[in-house]
């Protein structure tokens, strides 16, 4: 436990080395294929993120990158994994459709229980974030709102739908991060007025981000309950988190931001089924 009373819980993440990272098409406002990208820089920035997670004691698995899938580094989009059940993504754009079979195989080969591809467009943890026992579900740009009912049935958890309205924040994880069970931070202007009301009502103590931190992708953060790994450019947000007793850890992922992604986009949380305790003989 930290001095602030916050506790880190070790996590299990799936990541994908940006071996084929590039910006060759544009499916969000950050992507400009005419701007050069340097795969080597992307690789070393990603490696640093990976090493930070290892230093924090998290377990990291890797999925093999596939040629011609330059966005595959954004592993958060590959699936949603909860209670050992795996709902693999169905991507909005054909450019990324080839990632789904790679994730289906990865989970099936490792004996994960129920592994299935979503029927409706569903970009994994890009749009589905677990807060306590509720799945927060974004729609508006990528995931189909019908994916929410599907996720509710598949996981047996309640789903809270949120509508995104600013194309710069096209996935929920670009506009909102879960810090601890019921603590979140978000950028209000990224959401429809109705969703803003829902968020204010449900999370009255949330950290509200300023635009400067939001456009630095500060909300694309990964928290273990104590450490919050986020882009180092989001300095304001880092200060706010520290005031609340979190330990912000800045990483430079500027190369990956050229594709519209940062720390959280690179990180898919794997949540196994709760261990079954052997029943006691009486
Ligand atoms: N270029 C990718 C896309 O537009 C970036 C994905 C970012 N991932 C995320 N979880 N927000 O699909």
TrEMBL record:
SUPFAM superfamilies, per the entry: Pentein (SSF55909)
Domain of life: Bacteria
Name used for this protein in its record: Amidinotransferase
């Amino acid at each position: 436990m930290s001095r602030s009373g916050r506790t880190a819980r070790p996590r299990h993440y799936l990541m994908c080395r940006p071996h084929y990272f590039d910006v060759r098409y544009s499916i969000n406002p950050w992507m400009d294929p005419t701007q050069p990208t340097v795969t080597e820089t992307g690789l070393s920035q990603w490696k640093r993120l990976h090493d930070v997670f290892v230093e924090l004691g998290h377990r990291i698995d890797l999925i093999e990158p596939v040629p011609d899938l330059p966005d595959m580094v954004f592993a958060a989009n590959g699936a949603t994994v909860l209670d050992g059940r795996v709902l693999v993504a169905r991507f909005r754009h054909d450019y990324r459709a080839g990632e789904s079979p790679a994730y289906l195989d990865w989970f099936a080969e490792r004996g994960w229980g129920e592994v299935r591809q979503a029927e409706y467009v569903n970009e994994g943890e890009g749009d589905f974030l677990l807060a306590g026992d509720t799945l927060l579900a974004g729609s508006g740009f990528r995931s189909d709102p019908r994916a929410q009912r599907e996720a509710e049935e598949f996981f047996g958890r309640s789903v809270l739908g949120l509508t995104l309205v600013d194309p710069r924040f096209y996935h929920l994880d670009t506009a909102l991060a879960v810090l601890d069970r019921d603590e979140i931070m978000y950028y209000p202007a990224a959401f429809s007025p109705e969703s803003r009301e829902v968020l204010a009502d449900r999370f009255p103590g949330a950290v509200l981000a300023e635009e400067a931190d939001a456009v630095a992708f500060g909300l694309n953060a990964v928290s273990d309950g104590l450490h919050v790994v986020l882009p180092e450019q989001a300095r304001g947000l880092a200060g706010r988190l520290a005031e609340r007793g979190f330990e912000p850890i800045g990483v430079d992922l500027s190369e990956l931001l050229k594709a519209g992604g940062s720390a959280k986009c690179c990180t898919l949380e794997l949540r196994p089924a709760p261990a079954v305790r052997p029943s006691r003989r009486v």
